[in-house]
């Protein structure tokens, strides 16, 4: 990536920012941060939103508002020894007294201290470049607040000295990724599943319908299922050796002799990644509910880190079925994924509905469960009025589907006419955080 001369518009009051340098696109979610250069097909970096923190440094685990200051939270001489472990290669090394925290909550930035650690890591260890060279385009949740956006603008201009910044809703970017500026976007990520209508590149906020059932819910259900089936989750870091055993036989493995006394949160994080691997490898959604052919479907054998392995039959369909066929015991809103779409469509202008029905864009990691788009297509066709023309658009490439918002940002960031929309550093120097008003219609 060349760092060619930056040509900023010389009149500071003139909006926009022009440069020969590619923009950086940031798409952050509760599970991971995706970062890369505009015009690329895929992000260069996909870092977990979870950070390991040595216990000395961060005594308080509550939300940290930007501006509250790290000094307010870290007290005493030992605090200066705070250490952060970002990304899997360091985060997954067992260490004593290291807790794991997420910097996100429900898709919004919650702990700015940890958020900065991830940004520092992306710039200095992954992208290997100075942050003052590249304009930055951030995706944001449709539920993002004005104060969080202001805080991010301040952080990026004052700490990272970026030349220009812009924000776009992640669902709009996901629609762009499929070549559409109008669509219903169904985003099933880690913490929630939402459906919302996009019209000519703008979110129609009153059409947003959300449930708290996404990938994290499925991970919890898998953990419960494995516990009820007496399948013990032993994370890789504990295992010194294992032997091959037959299906459902007691595992034969040995534990590492020397292990540091790890924290409960870190151990849980490692168990969670084992369960997530099970979730991603084994689960499948029935393409048609109550499909009688279920017994003829392939039954995969899955091996856990300690060598225990089992063939999973009908069980693999039961857990994700909860997304499409929820029951009261789940708590929260018990609407199915198909109903979310229908309900979002119902909140749209009547004239728009036929077009939107024909443009249902599916994105988010949880939508990668096998059979998800096919089942969604079936359920929506049953719930929609008769003779409605439906089209579910879900890229077959798993990375394209999961990173659709990032990819849409990559497209938007590379469009020349878009450069008029950037907020430049000069504008920020004159107007400060109030510049957020310029973005109020997004
Ligand atoms: N191949 C897969 N099969 C099933 N689930 C998957 C697969 N890959 C990822 N997931 C799940 O998708 C979720 C992460 O999705 P995604 O990356 O869209 O979330 P996010 O954008 O970081 O979070 P959020 O949208 O909640 O803020 C996790 O729960 C993960 O277990
Ligand atoms: Mg997301």
Automatic annotation (TrEMBL):
* Superkingdom assignment: Eukaryota
Q: Which SUPFAM superfamilies match?
A: Actin-like ATPase domain (SSF53067)
Q: Which InterPro entries match?
A: Actin, ATPase_NBD
Question: What family does the entry list?
Answer: Belongs to the actin family.
Q: Which PANTHER family does the entry link to? A: ACTIN
In Swiss-Prot or TrEMBL terms, this protein is called Actin family
Taxonomic lineage is: Eukaryota, Metazoa, Ecdysozoa, Arthropoda, Hexapoda
């Amino acid at each position: 990536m060349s760092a060619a001369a930056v040509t900023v518009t010389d009149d500071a009051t003139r909006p926009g920012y022009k440069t020969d340098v590619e923009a950086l696109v940031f798409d952050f979610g509760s599970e991971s941060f995706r970062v890369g250069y505009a015009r690329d097909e895929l992000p260069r970096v996909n870092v977990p939103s979870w950070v390991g923190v040595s216990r000395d440094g961060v005594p308080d685990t509550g939300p940290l508002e930007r501006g509250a200051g790290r000094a307010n939270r870290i007290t005493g001489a030992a605090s200066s020894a705070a250490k952060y472990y970002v990304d899997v290669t360091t985060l997954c090394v067992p260490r004593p007294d290291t807790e794991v925290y997420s910097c996100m909550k429900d898709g919004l930035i919650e702990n700015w201290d940890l958020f900065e650690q991830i940004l520092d890591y992306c710039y200095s260890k992954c992208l290997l470049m100075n942050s003052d060279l590249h304009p930055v385009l951030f995706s944001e949740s449709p539920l993002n607040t004005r104060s969080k956006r202001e805080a991010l603008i301040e952080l990026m201009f004052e700490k990272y000295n970026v030349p220009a910044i812009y924000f776009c809703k992640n669902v709009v970017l996901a629609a762009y990724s499929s070549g559409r500026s109008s669509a219903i976007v169904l985003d099933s990520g880690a913490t929630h599943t939402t459906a919302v209508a996009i019209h000519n590149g703008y979110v129609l906020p009153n059409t947003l319908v959300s449930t708290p059932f996404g990938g994290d819910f499925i991970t919890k259900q898998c953990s419960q299922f494995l516990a009820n089936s007496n399948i013990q989750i032993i994370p890789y870091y504990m295992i010194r050796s294992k032997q091959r055993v037959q299906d459902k036989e007691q595992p034969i493995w040995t534990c590492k002799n020397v292990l540091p006394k790890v924290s409960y949160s870190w151990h849980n994080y490692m168990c969670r990644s084992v369960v997530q691997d099970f979730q991603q490898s084994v689960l499948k959604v029935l393409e048609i509910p109550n499909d009688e052919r279920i017994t003829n479907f392939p039954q995969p054998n899955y091996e856990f880190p300690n060598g225990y392995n089992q063939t999973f039959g009908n069980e693999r369909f039961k857990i994700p079925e909860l997304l499409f066929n929820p029951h009261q015991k789940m708590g929260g809103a018990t609407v199915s994924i198909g109903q979310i779409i229908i309900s979002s469509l119902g909140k749209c202008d009547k004239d728009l509905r036929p077009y939107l029905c024909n443009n249902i864009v599916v994105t988010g990691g949880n939508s990668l469960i096998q059979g998800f788009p096919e089942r969604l297509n079936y359920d929506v066709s049953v719930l929609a009025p008769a003779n409605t023309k439906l089209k579910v658009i879900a890229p077959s490439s798993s990375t394209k589907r999961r990173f659709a918002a990032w990819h849409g940002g990559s497209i938007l960031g590379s469009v020349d006419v878009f450069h008029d929309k950037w907020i430049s550093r000069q504008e920020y120097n004159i107007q400060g955080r109030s510049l957020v008003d310029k973005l109020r219609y997004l």
